[in-house]
Design brief:
The protein is of the alpha/beta class. It contains six helices and 17 strands. The strands form four sheets. Strands 1-16-17-15-12-9-10-11 form an eight-stranded mixed beta sheet, with helices on both faces. The protein has a five-stranded mixed beta sheet with strand order 2-3-4-5-6, with no helix packed on it. A two-stranded antiparallel ribbon has the order 7-8. The longest helix is centred in the middle third of the chain and has 14 residues, at about 100-115. The protein starts with a strand and ends with a strand. About 40% of the residues are buried.
């Protein structure tokens, strides 16, 4: 497992009973997590100081319960990257801190390439990978079907003082965008994708991970440049093994390179516990 252990503005303080106690800068939140199936709290007193808690509803969804007034949004920093955080519906905050392991890897690959790198970031959300690649010197095409998420990504890019870097923002269905890029004969040196388990495109197009992921990877290989640098798939889909992502890359990416896969996670402070948070598959030159 690759563990995101370089954060200063984020930490898991404790976790038990299906919940994690987290610090986001100066704000402490309690959020549910299905991987936390043990009952014992390591630091029970610290839970009392949480600013807000997300409570799931039995009928689906849920809501935030605020124990003290907090800002509508605030910023946290990872190295030189600045993210705007705000509590959203369905427990999210706009940042997945475990992705720092992938950001670090991308930045290192781009810097070591010592050439111009053109990156395509699909299902790009609020732009964590976009920030990482821009900061390392790449140009980025940022694609997401949600106009609100793309606007949030623009805010993060501006907060990180990267707005003058070469970035395009596209609000579109990912599959349709890639098909158009094939027709245009546009190519990219690196492709990143973080597809949801289930989702809908800008015009209601249905996405299901198990049904669509292999076909999308196959399409994306048609817009890889003659000298590609990397191809990253990230997933939070329940029940999918990291080896499945390796297999999809082996089947579809025909360039010479190395394929690896595994889990990513977050450490709990003052503890040996690590929270599993997702899987990745990587092809790299």
């Amino acid at each position: 497992m690759k563990v995101a252990s370089n954060w200063k503005d984020y930490e898991i303080i404790d976790m038990a009973n299906g919940e994690k106690l987290e610090r986001w800068g100066g704000i402490t939140l309690i959020r549910p997590d299905p991987q936390i199936i043990w009952k014992e709290k390591s630091f029970p007193q610290k839970w009392k100081g949480a600013n807000a808690r997300y409570i799931r509803s039995k009928s689906g969804g849920g809501n935030w319960e605020y124990k003290s007034k907090i800002p509508e949004k605030w910023s946290i920093k990872y190295k030189d990257l600045i993210f705007n955080v705000k509590p959203m519906g369905f427990k999210h905050t706009g940042v997945f801190p475990e992705q720092a392991v992938n950001w670090d890897w991308m930045m290192e690959k781009i810097k070591e390439a010592d050439r111009e790198i053109k990156v395509l970031n699909l299902f790009a959300y609020t732009g964590g990978a976009t920030l990482a690649c821009l900061s390392a010197g790449a140009s980025v095409c940022h694609v997401d079907s949600s106009k609100g998420m793309v606007q949030w990504a623009k805010e993060n890019v501006k907060s990180s003082k990267l707005e003058d870097k070469p970035v395009r923002y596209i609000v579109d269905d990912v599959v349709k965008f890639v098909e158009r890029e094939i027709r245009r004969e546009n190519t990219y040196d690196a492709i990143i994708m973080d597809p949801p388990s289930y989702g809908r495109g800008t015009k209601g197009e249905v996405w299901q991970f198990e049904e669509n992921i292999s076909e999308l990877v196959s399409l994306c290989t048609k817009i890889l440049s003659d000298n590609p640098l990397f191809f990253l798939i990230n997933s939070y889909t329940t029940g999918i093994s990291p080896e499945v992502l390796s297999n999809i890359l082996k089947i579809n990416v025909k360039y010479k390179g190395t394929i690896s896969s595994g889990e990513i996670g977050l450490p709990m402070e003052n503890s040996s516990l690590v929270l599993p948070c997702g899987i990745y598959g990587r092809w790299e030159k």
